[in-house]
Amino acid sequence: MQYRPLGRTGVQVSPLCLGAMMFGPWGNEDEADSIRIIHRALDAGVNFVDTADVYSAGVSEEIVGKALKDRRDDVFLATKFFMPMDSDDPNQRGGSRRWIIREIENSLRRLGTDHIDLYQVHRPSPDTDVAETLGALSDLVHQGKVRYIGSSSYSGSEIVEAQWTSRERHLERFVTEQPPYSILVRGIEEDVLPTVRRHGMGTLTYSPLAGGWLSGRYRKDSTSRPASAARPAARFDLSSPANQRKLDAVGHLAALAEEAGLTMIELAVAFVLRHPGVTSAIIGPRTMEQLEAFLPAADVTLPTEVLDRVDEIVAPGVTINPADNSYGDFALRTEQRRR
């Protein structure tokens, strides 16, 4: 596996980053099996693991910690904070200094480590001064509890604001951004990826299969359907015209993958990794079989003619269903609209 520079940090990471969201009650409840999957990924050359405190209410971090007990130094370990950890307590969430200083200790304990390589803000907050968040994270870096800090699902303007604030206030800066990116969700090509590259940041993109749409399971002639009851209707309701257009695109992409001698998963992940602004693609297997389907994509190089065909199916910079652009969650709040 060919390693890549993580922005300008000097750190080298694998093009595939093992996402741990599916380890625990949200996905695979078999702890031993989850640990085997993590070990298999490491044995295959993956040295980048990403989790979050909110995944299965901390269980994912605990599983990752157990899996890395004797291999911690071999892994660049990333986790995230921000999402609610207690639905009844409004202060057990967000980007405040109060919460960050408390939650880092919880993550360190669950992960069984004395430091986190990359500590990321899971989402931006319109109600919290970015200097508040960066100030607390800078203190954690100076204390040695965190090596680097990053953002997730920030818009281009939010990335710029954070970089400016770091420079103006002499604070540690975000060295990575974690946005959604796939063939069906290309919105970050227009602004986020160019902005990240201008600031010398690394990019670890999530959901290269667009929440399963590019797994090869869902087609217009297939009986398999997304489990809409457990997923956001705007993204998975097949009666939606936007999601019907996604199905149309998936059909064309499936034909292209077959012509190219690739699986849909290999085409989808290799497409993400081909962009010069992408450092690593986060893969989130629930089973060993799913992990094995992801691993070959790291060695696939898509020729120009295949990329041109992809652009004909989904134009550059286009997200077929805007609901998939989760980095824009806060960009069009009600008070910013005409209605």
Q: How does this structure look, described?
A:
By secondary structure, this protein is α/β, with parallel strands linked by helices. It has one domain (4-214, 264-301): TIM Barrel, CATH 3.20.20. It contains eleven helices and ten strands. It has helices spanning 31-43, 59-67, 97-111, 130-143, 156-169, 192-198, 233-236, 241-260, 264-274, 288-294, 304-313, and strands at 4-5, 12-13, 16-19, 48-50, 76-81, 116-121, 146-152, 174-178, 202-205, 280-283. Strands 3-4-5-6-7-8-9-10 form an eight-stranded parallel β-barrel, surrounded by five helices. Helix 1 (31-43) packs across helix 2 (59-67). The longest helix is centred in the last third of the chain and has 20 residues, at 241-260. The radius of gyration is 19 Å and the shape is globular. The mean pLDDT is 93.
